Amino acid sequence: MGTWAEMCGIAGTFQYAGRAAVNVEELRGYAASMQRRGPDGEGVWMNPEATVGLAHRRLSIIDLSDAATQPMHSACGRFSIAFNGEIYNYRELAKELTDQGVVLRTQSDTEVLLALFAQTEERMLNQLRGMFAFAIWDQHEKRLFLARDTFGIKPLYVSLGDGCVRFASQVRTLVDASPISREIDPAAQAGFLLWGSIPEPFTLYRSISTLPAGHYQWVDQNGAGQSTAYERWQDLCDRDPLKSLSADAIRNALMDSVKAHQVSDVPVGAFLSSGIDSCLMVALMRQISNAPITTLTVGFDEFVGTENDELPLARAVAQQLGTDHHEIRFSKEDFLSSRDRILSDMDQPSIDGINTWMVSRAASDVGMKVAISGLGGDELFGGYPSFDQVPAWSRWTRWPAKVPGLGKLIRLMSEPICHVLGIHPKAAGLVEYGGSLSELYLCKRAVHMPWELSKILGKDQAAEGLKRLNLTTQLDGSVLQSASDKQQISALESTLYMKNQLLRDTDWASMAHSLEVRVPLVDRELVRAVTRQPMTSKQAVARSFGSLLPETIINKPKTGFSTPIQQWLFAGREQRSEFCSRDWCRSLHQQAMVETAV
Q1: For residue 490, which of 533, 520, 543 has the smallest C-alpha distance?
Q2: Which residues contact 55 (CB under 8 A, 6 or more apart)?
């Protein structure tokens, strides 16, 4: 039996300045604070000099024996690793190693990571297909290596100060178990109020940063080096038409990704909505394997008889595919009784993720430990309204936006009118921000616009936050060069909304229930295949599989995975989603400030 790594929590400390030994109680505090991320076991280790310590929590998914206990050490004793994730091509990598004469003691992806690192250090990262965050200690060189997957599926937070580096899978682990500053970062406040989540590399606290997706970082006895990008989402997008793939190749890439994401020693279930993405995932799971598939759909009484009710169509798909299907309805009372725990589990403020928390709780209740999600399909196949709306806005704003001062003047004049008419204030800024797709994307996705922040944070705090946030660099760094408008939007949605909100929310919300969620549509080989083609719609992709999915699913208008949470929170008030999300954003911001003050 293999000894794969499992979804879990990792943490550690490196006293690089040699001022003090690692505090073992702090390490144990890390492990205790991540108990729900890995209820099946824990490991705490320190090197002989007590200058570095690693902590690990385990959620057993593949190899349920004690052989997969971490931290794991290389046979020579030089390298030690704490690893959170799954490497889907580990068998191929293991074969390459053994063909070179490398002796592997186990069949684990963790040991493969150690062996690859011993050969090529950071260059091994470009060989990995999977989701991961890990730390490797080199006892000979006395240095620590931190790394995170290309898409940022698994989190890793880092705190530097007083000759020490601390890292963990959760921000609250570092805050609760370490003697670090809890000073609020204005950039995090500004970012959260703009986007509804805190964009990396920021966290709520100045003393903690996010290791960016697709980056690694070395820490030696001289301190921490700058984090270095080894692969970005944009790097996977080869738009050379001479390298275009056929529709068959894209279908094969989808099948290959779903197959890779099904490897497990416990049953793999799936979240099943009435949308194309999740239905296609389950249909491909059925084609690939005859193993029983448990599917789960969440419904709400408020949506019965409306287009937002997921249950009827999902039930029909489950019956067609022969899954072990479960339906769970949530009520307003369920949400209100869980609200405090949701906010506690949230780790970082977010206006999303509650739906994932609720479906993850339901999945745990029916016995799931692994669930496949359709997350990523909208970003990859242009499923959001932004793919049509933002380019359309650009066509009529790009020329007025070139006139100096005109956009700001229009915004100042029209903002009061928007307020009276109940129109979102960001509509007033379309011309001011109409000079580029990336700035118009901000208008589409923003909860609050930059000029509104001073009313919430105060003038000085808002100014400092926006300066540190550096929106222009953030937006420009997310676009593709020489790409179509829709490919540009795909890059923005993937590297901003998906990375900073959807993937992060999926991590905390699922791990709060000791559930591993896998995302086959967020896969480096699949992204390589799909982005070599002109953007293909989800409907076209689904139809390319013949009668795999019924036309009722393929033709269904997009509604998203909706919940009535805003109705529950703001009963009796105007129920437009943008209005409510702004109130929810302010409410979460205020609560975060109160909790931090305490």
Answers
A1: 533
A2: 10, 11, 12, 27, 28, 30, 31, 34, 42, 43, 44, 45, 82
282 against 301, higher pLDDT: 282
Q: What burial class does residue 26 get, using C-beta atoms within 10 Å of its C-beta: 0-12 exposed, 13-18 middle, 19+ buried? A: middle
What is the per-residue burial (b if ≥16 Cβ within 10 Å, else e) of 288-323?
eeeeebbbbbbbbebbeeeebbbbebbbebbebbeb
**How far apart are alpha carbons 271 and 52 in whole angstroms?**
40
Mind listing the pLDDT tens digit for each residue in 512-535? 999 999 999 999 999 988 887 777
Nearest residue to 569 via CA among 330, 298, 339, 329 = 339
Which of helix, strand or coil describes residue 43?
A: strand
Question: What pLDDT is attached to residue 450?
Answer: 94
Within 10 angstroms of residue 366's Cβ, the number of other Cβ atoms is 13
pLDDT tens for residues 533-558? 777 888 888 888 888 888 888 887 76
As a whole number of angstroms, the distance between CA 84 and CA 8 comes to: 5
pLDDT digits (tens, 9 = 90+) for 340-351: 899 889 999 999
Instruction: Give residue for tokens 């979240």.
Output: 271
Name the band, by pLDDT with cuts 50, 70 and 90, for residue 319.
very high
pLDDT tier at 561 (50, 70, 90 boundaries)?
low
What letter represents residue 526's amino acid?
Answer: L
Please give the structure tokens belonging to residue 126: 């470009």
CA angle, 574 then 575 then 578, to 5°: 105
CA distance 165 to 76: 25
CB atoms within 10 A of CB 588: 19
Strands 52-58 and 72-73: unpaired
Domain borders along the chain are 8-231, 237-382+496-565, 386-488
Beta carbons of 294 and 324 less than 8 angstroms apart: yes
Domain 8-231: which CATH class?
alpha beta
Per-residue pLDDT band for 17 (boundaries 50, 70, 90) equals confident
State both tokens at 253.
Answer: 């890439």
The C-alpha atoms of residue 90 and residue 244 are separated, in whole angstroms, by 27
Q: State how far the Cα of 222 lies from the Cα of 53, in Å rounded to an integer.
A: 18
Find all residues with CB under 8 Å of 451, minimum gap 6, and list them: 411, 429
| CB-count burial class (<10 Å; 0-12, 13-18, 19+) for 400 | middle
pLDDT tens, 408-428?
999 999 888 887 887 877 888
Q: Regarding predicted confidence, which is higher, 397 or 302?
A: 397
Superfamily of domain 237-382+496-565: HUPs (3.40.50.620)
